[in-house]
């Protein structure tokens, strides 16, 4: 995964800072709720996301913007200060306030263009399936499909937006293997889990609707809410996940439309929401007519699963998942199960987005499920992840690490005085790539000093061992010396 060493880039030349002074930005705060100064900071953030404001651009003066918006100069001062706290802008004494802009959306959370150019780097940033015999299995599957002209012809045709019946039936069998029942008529096939989430948001919500999630959550969801211009609030968490009382207060104050959760394995904190907490969350959602997206993409063995939110409240929950973490990310086959009254809206969003998802990839997934290859791949991966988790616990014993026996990733809380960004930069210099907590923080949430590390990415246990030992060495012997201020 390609990352910037720092999640924000500050303009460094005076000429750059003054490169956009010929016209002034003219925001509107009518679309935002809450205090005016926060609305101004929100407007700046959205303008940056949409490209209306660019890095280095100078914002209007406090007085000019106050006159334009009909507010006090103090409101503008507080708004600019809030934007600076979020690291969206920087104030230059005697020069003005300039846009910094967030850069991680396009750089930190992406797949490397050419992984081979970084063979000497131990990449622990990506939550990917462990390399196995998938290439051989795919070759055999494609060869089998090629023997039937009628099957190939069908896979090249247009179909209804919810996918071929046999593909949906295969997903029913997949879910049953994982301890969950579903109706094939209630399944909508998508191009992966991210696509499933975005289609749900696009089909059910409107511009500026409020959505809520854990205060630390999947960056793909954060980016999706920004792209769709939704108001996204992050709520406090504890070791069991989202705190119910915080959700209740939010529902009373903000009337959110939708809640996004990963109860089976939270990304990035690797926590699992207990059954009692799931029931408490559902009770609140029902009380305030709050829809829930349950993201169940992560690799979890059937024996480690608790009842899904969808199983507990199918009328309240939209369930999204995919085969990415279990079989192969490149299949790009995901699916949505939603309450019956919402199916048409989500299907229309998919229809307007891509008409249908490619039947060929869904056919490959079906063949793997029906032939038993899927279960063999899962069993192999379960054993490999178990061995890697044992390696993780062995090497980082004594440090504050949260993980699960079946998890691709772990959450490492850093000892003082380490800061997440500093630690990530330092480990990169040592040939190990990690993701800082800030990448997962919603809005202006104060991110904890922690990093996410993925144990599934390295192509061998020995490579993983080397990376973990470098982390241990750094935490054990270098943290104080590296961060201690210089004394003259």
TrEMBL record:
Residues 1-28 are annotated as: Disordered. Coiled coil: none annotated. Residues 11-25 have a biased composition (Basic and acidic residues). Gene3D superfamilies: Type I PLP-dependent aspartate aminotransferase-like (Major domain), Winged helix-like DNA-binding domain superfamily/Winged helix DNA-binding domain. InterPro entries: Aminotransferase_I/II_large (IPR004839), HTH_trans_reg/aminotransferase (IPR051446), PyrdxlP-dep_Trfase (IPR015424), PyrdxlP-dep_Trfase_major (IPR015421), Tscrpt_reg_HTH_GntR (IPR000524), WH-like_DNA-bd_sf (IPR036388), WH_DNA-bd_sf (IPR036390). Residues 34-102 form the HTH gntR-type domain. GO terms for molecular function: transaminase activity. Keywords: Aminotransferase, DNA-binding, Pyridoxal phosphate, Transcription, Transcription regulation, Transferase. SUPFAM superfamilies: PLP-dependent transferases, Winged helix' DNA-binding domain. The keyword Ubl conjugation does not apply. In the C-terminal section; belongs to the class-I pyridoxal-phosphate-dependent aminotransferase family. This is PLP-dependent aminotransferase family protein. It comes from Endozoicomonas euniceicola.
